[in-house]
Structures are given as C-alpha cells and as structure tokens.
C-alpha cells in the first residue's frame, strides 16, 4: 500500500464518508434558533452552502456577519453538531469501498475540515483508521477553504503518493478547488452539502454514489 505512482484517493469526511447531513441541518437550525433566524430545509442548505462559510451566512441573512457574530455562530453550530453527530453513521457501503480499494493495492488518506482533535477518535471509533496512510483534520480557524490544507496533506505524503495520480472525493465544490491547487483531480458526490447543479459548476465528474466515485477515481488515475 502506498507505492509511489499508484492510484491514491484523498477522502473527505463530513457529507462524504460520514453521512452527517441530518446532524449538520439539525445543528444549523438549532444555531439559527438561538440567533433568532428562521430554520432552513436541506434543499435550501444545499443550494446556498459555500466556502468560505461566512459567505453562506451572507446568503442567508443578507450581509456578512461581523467577526464577533461569526465566532458566535460557529461556536453555537459546533456545540449543537457535537450533540447530533452521535446519531450518524458511515455512508452506506463506505467501509466496504475503503477495504476494497486498499485490497486492490491502492492507497488512500483522509482530509477533513472538521477539527483534528475531534476527527481522529471519530474515525477510529468506526474501525476504519487502518485503511488510511494519513488522517488529517483542520488545524487553525474554521470556515475557510480546504486548498492550503490539501497542499500540506499531499506534501506530507510525498514519496508515497503522486499528486497527478491522486483523486479527491468530496461533497463540496471546494474539494475540487483544493484538488486543483494541489495538482490532483477530483470527483464530487451529491449526497452531502451541495446540490448537483452547484457541483457541476466545478467542472469535474459528479456522481450520486460513493461506489461510482471510486469507479471514476480508478478511471481518472489509471
């Protein structure tokens, strides 16, 4: 596993391997309730969500939040998300796909914008940590792009992973942006935070299942 030049997948976590859409919507609406904002539906969330996340709030409330407002919103969201996530599971078939990709002699890693100290024990708790060469969560402030994190992630795998044969699988347009920045390619999955229409604007393959995403990754990295 991890031989130089082999196909490599960088998996996203929230909304991709981890099916936490209900937790995200629940936490978003719980935070909105505390702030006196109206709740939103999953369809509204998917059509409006974007990175950097303060821009998402601008679309919802008609202006960018102040730094103080953003810190408050972000803190409330993460507090409620921690309460909701315990009811969530891996996306259907994810564990089998991870095992299959590994057994085929390919490598994979995990990069998430979920805080690193929370991510690692969560991944470990699902018994899938050993499938990954590396598991990286966010360090530093929340709400920004994954691009610089992706560059650092692949640099840390230098010598075992070739960016040109690396495919990022995620549920957000920002995953495609991050892949391009790092010299990799991307496949986007419709089961998470973005609508299909918004994902298609990224100009990369868009699929409806993780199995299709892995098939595309195999084709792209061949």
Automatic annotation (TrEMBL):
Q: Matching SUPFAM superfamilies, A to Z? A: HAD-like (SSF56784)
UniProt superkingdom: Bacteria
Task: Spell out the InterPro entries in the cross-references.
Answer: HAD-like_hydrolase_sf, HAD-like_sf, HAD_sf, PGP-like_dom2
Q: Which GO terms describe its molecular function?
A: phosphoglycolate phosphatase activity
Q: Single Gene Ontology BP term?
A: DNA repair
- Name a GO CC annotation attached to this entry: cytosol
Among Pfam families, the record links this protein to: Hydrolase
Task: Show the Gene3D superfamilies listed in the entry.
Answer: HAD superfamily/HAD-like, Putative phosphatase, domain 2
Any idea what this protein is called?
A: Phosphatase
Query: What's the source species' lineage?
Result: Bacteria, Bacillati, Actinomycetota, Actinomycetes, Kitasatosporales
């Amino acid at each position: 596993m991890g031989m130089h030049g082999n196909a490599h997948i960088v998996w996203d976590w929230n909304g991709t391997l981890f099916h936490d859409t209900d937790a995200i919507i629940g936490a978003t609406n719980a935070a909105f309730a505390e702030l006196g904002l109206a709740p939103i539906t999953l369809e509204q969330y998917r059509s409006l969500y974007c990175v950097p996340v303060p821009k998402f709030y601008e679309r919802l409330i008609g202006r960018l939040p102040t730094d103080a407002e953003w810190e408050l919103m972000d803190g409330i969201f993460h507090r409620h998300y921690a309460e909701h996530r315990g009811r969530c599971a891996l996306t259907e078939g994810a564990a089998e796909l991870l095992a299959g990709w590994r057994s085929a002699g390919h490598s994979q890693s995990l990069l998430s914008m979920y805080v690193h100290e929370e991510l690692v024990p969560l991944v470990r708790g699902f018994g899938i940590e050993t499938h990954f060469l590396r598991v990286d969560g966010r360090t530093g402030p929340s709400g920004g792009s994954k691009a610089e994190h992706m560059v650092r992630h692949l640099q840390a795998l230098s010598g075992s992973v070739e960016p040109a044969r690396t495919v990022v699988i995620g549920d957000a347009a920002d995953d495609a942006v991050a892949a391009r920045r790092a010299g990799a390619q991307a496949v986007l999955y419709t089961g998470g935070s973005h609508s299909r229409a918004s994902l298609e604007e990224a100009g990369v393959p868009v699929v409806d299942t993780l199995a299709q995403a892995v098939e595309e990754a195999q084709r792209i990295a061949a």
